[in-house]
Amino acid sequence: MIAFGIMTVSMESEQSYINEIAKLAESCGMECFRFLPSKINPLTLQVKGEKYISISKSWVKSEFPIPTIIYDRCFYGDDEHSKQCIPIVSWLKTRTDTTFLGYGLPNKLELYEVLRKTVLSPYLPVTLFVSDTNIVLNELTKMKRIILKPINGSQGHGIYYLKKNEKSFHVKTEKQKNIISRIFPNETKLIQWLQSLIGNRQYLMQPYLELSNTQLQPFDIRILLQKNMDGKWNELGRGVRRGNTGGILSNLSAGGFALPFADWSKSLPSATKEYMNQELEYILTNLPPLLENAFLPLFELGVDIGIAKNGSIWILDVNSKPGRKVLLQTQPDLEDALNLAPLLYGKHLTLIDSKERKSYYEKTLSH
After folding, report:
1. Could you read off the pLDDT of 321-367 as tens digits, one per residue?
2. How much is the pTM?
């Protein structure tokens, strides 16, 4: 049987999703394991983790060789364990006896620098690295409103909205589903806060886009793309995420909620809907091959699309380890297909000659 390993930074991560995959593994001719990168013995190449036993429908502690197929669901934080895992995963990606379902994408800035040289450039908000506070102040003077995002951020954590008033500065963020607002009376106070922010973490800056509805709720469209059992890209589904009134985030983890794309789009004028669907089709057709040409092979993508009040369409984020919450809430009938997809694609990868497969992977590795 094929050894299918699900790799996480914590054994508590995504337990429900991982359990559902494990239940289906045997039907695909696979044995399912789960493990942490830090539990690989570099000398023996044995892993201490857990193996799924289908008869008892339970996980048991086990020691096993590094699985042939690896589904990377590692979400790194700023903690020491994450820092320990990152180089181990990089090393794993260089091995010829293991194949990852997807090899991940680089940070948001590297991604932008690649995509801005492609046909998708018109859909990208101008993005700048925040190297010092002057860049932020200069942009605020020109634009009046901007967004700061962590270069390696996810789930909306650490995003700030900045607005320049006549004399003061307004800063807004969302933490634990609450909107936190602060007024800085002058430039000096804002600079002190900015220095502290960018001193602890790398940030990028984008213009503020009016991506809220008539109720002043931020919203975006989350689209899930995956490769099927033949290795072809398919759209699994799409949903609309809507945030809190007056907020800046639509993420469900920040207190937003999801609604079916079909229900939301019904309210659009037919010409607007047709234009939007054509634009989305263009973006979604071009995005996967552009990314795989620039980086390593991928299995799935979560694409976040914003539609501004003036009708312009923007690629807000591209995630190679997307969640499934939006689709499960809006299209629950997709659950079985979502759980089965990693196994079917993993099986497809085992049918490809390993040397032929590896020739695609001899590029710069990224997480």
Report:
1. 999 999 999 999 999 999 999 999 999 999 885 545 445 455 444 44
2. 0.89
Neighbours of 282 (CB within 10 A): 14
Strands 99-100 and 69-72: parallel
What is the rounded CA–CA span in Å between residue 206 and residue 161? 10
- Measured distance CA(280)–CA(274) in Å, rounded: 10
Specify the pLDDT at position 188: 94
DSSP structural state of residue 7:
E
Cα torsion at 127, 128, 130, 132 (round to 10°)? -150
Sheet holding 58-65, edge to edge: 58-65, 46-53, 30-35, 2-7, 69-72, 99-100
Long-range contact set of residues 30-33: C-beta below 8 Å, sequence gap at least 24: 30/1, 30/2, 30/3, 30/4, 30/69, 30/343, 30/346, 30/347, 31/1, 31/2, 31/3, 31/4, 32/4, 32/5, 32/6, 33/3, 33/4, 33/5, 33/6, 33/62, 33/64, 33/67
pLDDT classification of 249: cutoffs 50, 70, 90: low
CATH superfamily to which 108-123+213-333 belongs = ATP-grasp fold, B domain (3.30.470.20)
> What would the pLDDT profile of 78-136 be if each residue is shown by its tens digit?
889 999 999 999 999 999 899 999 999 999 999 999 999 999 999 999 999 999 999 99
- Per-residue CA distances from 79 to 10, 153, 154, 288 (Å): 12, 14, 15, 31
Q: Report the b/e string of 167-206 with b at 16+ CB within 10 A.
A: eebebbbbeeeebeeeebeebeebbebbeebbeeeebbbb
Q: Domain 2-100 class?
A: alpha beta
More confident residue, 359 or 217: 217
Domain borders along the chain are 2-100, 108-123+213-333, 128-207
Q: List, as one string, the DSSP characters of 83-115.
A: HHHHHHHHHHHH-TT-EES------HHHHHHHH
